[in-house]
Amino acid sequence: MKRKEIDKKQGEESVSAESSSEESSSDNDTNMLDVEFEWFDPQPEHDFHGLKTLLRQLFDVDAQSFDLSALTDLILAQPLLGSTVKVEGNETDPYAFLTVLNLHEHKDKPVVEKMITYIRAQAKRNTALLKLSDLVKKSTSARIGLILTDRLVNIPSEVVPPMYRMLLEEISWAIEEKEPYNFTHYLILSKTYREIASALDPEDTPKPKKQRKASQKGTSEVFYFHPEDEILQRHAACFGSYEYLVEGAKSDSKRAFQELGIKPEGHMILIEANKFEAAVKGLQEYFSQS
After folding, report:
1. N or C, where is the chain less crowded by C-beta within 10 Å?
2. pLDDT tops 60 at residue 133
3. Would you give the end-to-end CA distance of the chain in angstroms?
């Protein structure tokens, strides 16, 4: 399968990614690495394990609620829709991916049926998402495209706009071929987090310059793992975060830099189809300026 054909400016470009040495936390020791990213169609013969790993990361502790192998197979069954991002050629594991699944078309598949149940249950836990619960019911006339996307932690956000732009093009081509991708809405599953009070013993706690207050339930402020979500939300019919069904370990990973840990949460963004193109354009404009 040949590489995705995209503009050189947006596609085959060198992106500087920072990586800090584990042996030193000094800013002076930060290393710069030039990486050339390439975009590919999903490859069933190469991408199964890499995509499954990224799906597990996307769903976090709730990943155990799904048959990720079946979900990965469903993604790979539509190789002309969606993209992966790689750095060392087609036969390597993806560093990022984006795809869309037709919830109505696949509603009778066990993994999608489970996904629909999960989305409805989580939407009911946040009043901002209540309209989504009725929208994804099997009996509804709405045709929802479920967008799944994630990337490894150090992959820059600039890889995202080309994936969304190509998805728009691929959906347009699929509709011309009478394939079932004429959606009324797009639902993006993502992740956010809140800061929480430390679970460490007081003697292990770094002395902050300024004390910040947070409970074990977390602060009210939402932080984004995916910066593009804030742009997409400007075009959303509704959006909101929710706590995972499975209780996860509270993370103190950020506490090398500050006194608070983090509490990951799931996040959903619903965009009407007639506003999706504008949302993608907004992404391209935002990241071209950053």
Report:
1. C
2. yes
3. 32
